[in-house]
Amino acid sequence: MRVLEQTAPLAYQESYDNAGLQCGDPQMEVRGVLIALDCTPAVVDEALRRGCNVVVAHHPLIFKPLKRLTGANEVEQTLLKAIRHDVALYAAHTNLDSVLHGVNRKLGEKLGLQNLRILDPKPGLLGKLITYVPSTHTQAVLQALYAAGAGQIGQYAECSFRSEGTFTFTPGPETNPFSGQPGQPHTGPEDRVEVLLPLHLQAAALRALRQAHPYEEVAYELIKLENLHQEVGSGMVGELPEPLTPAEFRQRLRTALGVPVVKHTEFGEPIRTVALCGGAGSFLIGKARAAGAQAYVTGDLKYHEYFLPEGGLMLCDVGHFESEQFTGEIFRDLLMGNFGSTFALFIAETLTNPVRYDF
């Protein structure tokens, strides 16, 4: 869980979502992990056949609140089977959709897009932490903050700003000051240190600050920023290596995604810039146009939503499952990269896509 949430923090899931551990003991020993897009009774059966006691899925099994657990529907049946056989269920959903190296980047890579970036970055996820440190301890405090996740800006690590100043304080009679004497006014040099901080790491950063700081009373300021977080948000946009005609681009979709059908709108210009969103992405059509995309790839578009581009780009509906089918590779690479052969790891062979096509 810790490894998965370092890449896709639960704080980045949408308010309506229910990502995280859905059932199971977080302290139990992992014997094997089965990775799936959806969790169904057949997926739990496959986990049991393979000797796995953890299922990691993209879509949460428990999405709406359960009022009872009687096996009256497939969700309850799946949950009961998992509980009876001590199989833990974990989901990383919109939190994995929202990060730079998540679902949408994987889809963009499969399509051969370059210069991939977040289509609709989120504001309000960052803060600035400011503190005041004697210069002899500035580096130690900064290293503690970096280790807690502060000071990262895109691909640049250990970012900070410092300026020199002068402190003034009078320690109380029962204090044990780092410098100066109780009851005596004291003045000296001090560094003002500033770092950028993801707000969901606030508690860890403040804990690290207090542990590394030499003062009894640590002065700090935490300011919420409205800056866009360039590595967290909805959708993705990138460029094809070479422009393609609309027909050539749709053929690329069919080949790369293995889809038999692409529902699309008419468009007569070459395709170079492509926006995309795995799953249901109609809410980003306007953002795709604003980004200068000639094509927008997503799933689950409704009839009237096909009118929204007004000829400004080509909408391509490849299907919900089809647009997220490679998500298992993200889970696999994360877990293999961190645990290697510690436990068995499989991508499910059970097909959970409920949609079928007749020709």
From TrEMBL:
<dbReference type="InterPro" id="IPR017221">
    <property type="entry name" value="DUF34/NIF3_bac"/>
</dbReference>
<feature type="binding site">
    <location>
        <position position="324"/>
    </location>
    <ligand>
        <name>a divalent metal cation</name>
    </ligand>
</feature>
<dbReference type="Pfam" id="PF01784">
    <property type="entry name" value="DUF34_NIF3"/>
</dbReference>
<feature type="binding site">
    <location>
        <position position="320"/>
    </location>
    <ligand>
        <name>a divalent metal cation</name>
    </ligand>
</feature>
<dbReference type="GO" id="GO:0046872">
    <property type="term" value="F:metal ion binding"/>
</dbReference>
<dbReference type="GO" id="GO:0005737">
    <property type="term" value="C:cytoplasm"/>
</dbReference>
<protein>
    <recommendedName>
        <fullName>GTP cyclohydrolase 1 type 2 homolog</fullName>
    </recommendedName>
</protein>
<keyword id="KW-0479">Metal-binding</keyword>
<comment type="similarity">
    <text>Belongs to the GTP cyclohydrolase I type 2/NIF3 family.</text>
</comment>
<dbReference type="InterPro" id="IPR002678">
    <property type="entry name" value="DUF34/NIF3"/>
</dbReference>
<feature type="binding site">
    <location>
        <position position="58"/>
    </location>
    <ligand>
        <name>a divalent metal cation</name>
    </ligand>
</feature>
<dbReference type="InterPro" id="IPR015867">
    <property type="entry name" value="N-reg_PII/ATP_PRibTrfase_C"/>
</dbReference>
<comment type="subunit">
    <text>Homohexamer.</text>
</comment>
<feature type="binding site">
    <location>
        <position position="97"/>
    </location>
    <ligand>
        <name>a divalent metal cation</name>
    </ligand>
</feature>
<feature type="binding site">
    <location>
        <position position="59"/>
    </location>
    <ligand>
        <name>a divalent metal cation</name>
    </ligand>
</feature>
<dbReference type="InterPro" id="IPR036069">
    <property type="entry name" value="DUF34/NIF3_sf"/>
</dbReference>
